[in-house]
Amino acid sequence: MGHNSNIEVYISGEDTVTKEVIYRILSFVSPRFKVVGDIPARGGEIKKKIPQCNSLAKLHPVIMLLDVDNGCAPMLKSALLGDQKQSDGFLMNIAVDEAEAWLMADTEGFARYFGINSNDMPKAEANKQGGRKALIEMNFPMKSSFVLTHELIFKSNNPVLKQQIGVKEKGKTKGKEYNDAIVPFIKNVWNIKQAKTNSDSLQRMLRRLECLLNKY
After folding, report:
1. C-alpha torsion 103→108→113→117, nearest 10
2. What's the half-sphere exposure (Cβ side, CA atoms, 13 Å) at 63?
3. What is the pLDDT of residue 133?
4. What percent of the chain has pLDDT over 90?
5. Are 185 and 114 in contact, with CB atoms under 8 Å apart?
6. Are the beta carbons of 114 and 155 closer than 8 angstroms?
7. Residues 6+ apart with CB under 8 A from 66
């Protein structure tokens, strides 16, 4: 296969935001990536799709993006694969702690777009995640999407975005128009170059895609 031809890939993510993040990262790395299929999975379902994705990856590369619920990414990965050997074409990426953390890793761009003072933005910190080396990731007291919907967005000076994203009712996790508010940022504004300096897990996904690109 020539180095100018398209690389047909399948993707899998657990929600709209995660999938849009995959699309945007693929186009950032190379226009040669062409998504030919989306393996549907909602929330926790995605973990059950791992054997299917791993088999499909023998024929076509599969790009998956998951959240790390608890613990560290490498441990989660081996737990999810079980006794299966990971196919070379199966790129299993884990966002620490969620895709939203990667979006907020572009702290200046995110603050500007969502009308939040940059001093109020979460910061990146080095922390150990089970490995020997401390890794740089955005630091949140709880899930990054929860921090965004329940706290951060209420510091915004944009009433429309506040209404779309913010949650005040108990039991709700996201505002009614959450995706409508977040997706345009991912597609048009998110600065991946900036974000990767604040997230080692994002850098790892970019490196895997570069390796895949070089193979084809």
Report:
1. 120
2. 31
3. 76
4. 69
5. yes
6. no
7. 13, 14, 46, 47, 76, 80, 92, 93, 94, 95
CA quadruple 41, 44, 49, 53: dihedral sign: positive
Q: What is the pTM of this model?
A: 0.92
Query: In terms of pLDDT, which residue wins out, 192 or 169?
Result: 192
Of residues 168, 177, 163, the one with CA closest to residue 150: 168
Residue 9 sits at the vertex; the CA angle it makes with 5 and 10, to the nearest 5 degrees, is 165
Q: Using one digit for the tens of pLDDT, what is the confidence trace for 115-159?
A: 999 999 999 998 766 566 778 999 999 999 999 999 999 999 999
**Between 178-188 and 16-29, two packed helices, what is the crossing angle to 10 degrees?**
0
Distance CA 198, CA 135 (A): 10
180 versus 173: the higher-pLDDT residue is: 180
